[in-house]
Design a protein that fits this description.
This protein is α+β, with helices and mostly antiparallel strands. The protein is built from 4 helices and 8 strands; from the N terminus they run αβββαββααβββ. Strands 1-2-3-6-5-4 form a 6-stranded antiparallel β-barrel.
């Protein structure tokens, strides 16, 4: 296994099956963000939403999205996959991780399933209180983890 694949597999394993994350979407010059229940399936970050909501409209006109949790930022391309109940893998994982949301929303007529294919992931890591920036360039299968050094105060230097 190449180093990128090994590190990326470890990251996904550490991420786990489901998390509550911030989803950012945009249309024209207007960006909006909201908390979402997100599950990980086959390397994609998956969520459901109602076709009547602003985020749904934004996703249909601009599939570029960002997900964020703690010190992890994920940029990706989002695609609609139909109704949540039509995807047994999603249903099984979503119900296990977010039973209340599954029971309340997944069977609604307007509910749609989206998969985010990650393109770029950045994570800040701290080793002995020293900051590192870990980058997964998924499209090019490149991994880096470099110490963050910051810059001095340029106004005074």
């Amino acid at each position: 296994m190449n180093p990128f694949a090994e590190k990326y597999r470890a990251f996904l394993s550490e991420f786990g099956q489901g998390r509550t994350m911030v989803l950012s979407t945009a249309e024209n010059d207007r960006v909006s963000s909201r908390m979402m229940s997100v599950v990980l399936i086959n390397g994609c970050f998956c969520f459901q939403t109602d076709t009547e909501l602003r985020k749904y409209h934004q996703l249909t006109v601009n599939p570029n999205v960002a997900l964020c949790i703690d010190n992890i930022q994920i940029e990706g391309i989002c695609s609609e996959k139909g109704r949540p109940l039509d995807d047994s893998g999603f249903c099984e994982t979503f119900q296990k991780c977010f039973k209340g949301s599954f029971d309340e929303y997944s069977s609604l007529d307007n509910e749609r399933l989206f998969y985010v294919r990650p393109l770029f992931i950045e994570r800040w890591k701290y080793v002995d209180k020293i900051p590192y920036i870990e980058i997964f360039d998924i499209e090019n299968e490149r991994y880096s983890c470099e110490r963050y050094m910051g810059k001095g105060d340029e106004m005074n230097g």
